[in-house]
Amino acid sequence: MAQLATPPSIPIHSTPPRPVAVIDIGATSVRMAIAEIHADGEVRTLDTLVQPVDLGREAFDVRRFSRGTIEKVAGILKKYQRVLQEYG
């Protein structure tokens, strides 16, 4: 008697991937990567953003950040927040 092949199992309760983000505030730029992490561990990059800043010079030369630099970084983070909201 021939045996029937068992169909591959599909998890019933698998959740769809949702976007996650990582923000790196570095010496010369503020970067953000947005990705989806799937249940099987696969990571799919959805978007990357880079905005230049001059934090390194102020941090190492003056040892403090000017108000203008702080406001610039805050503005970049607000823009990144709006982008993230578009991804849900």
For this entry, give a set of tags.
88 residues
Describe this structure in words.
The structure is a single chain. With 88 residues, the chain is an alpha+beta fold. The protein has a single domain, classed as Nucleotidyltransferase, domain 5. It has a three-stranded antiparallel sheet with strand order 1-2-3, with helices on one face. Strand 2 and strand 3 form a beta hairpin. The chain is elongated. The model has no long low-confidence stretch (mean pLDDT 88).
Number of helices: 2
The chain-level mean pLDDT equals: 88
- Rg calculated over all Cα atoms: 21 Å
Give the CATH H-level superfamily: ATPase, nucleotide binding domain
Range of strand content: 25-35%
Strand order of the biggest β-sheet: 1-2-3
CATH class: Alpha Beta
Question: What's a concise summary of this model?
Answer:
The protein is 33% helix and 30% strand.
Task: Describe the SSE topology.
Layout: E1 19-25, E2 29-37, E3 43-52, H1 55-62, H2 67-87
Antiparallel strand pairs: 1-2, 2-3
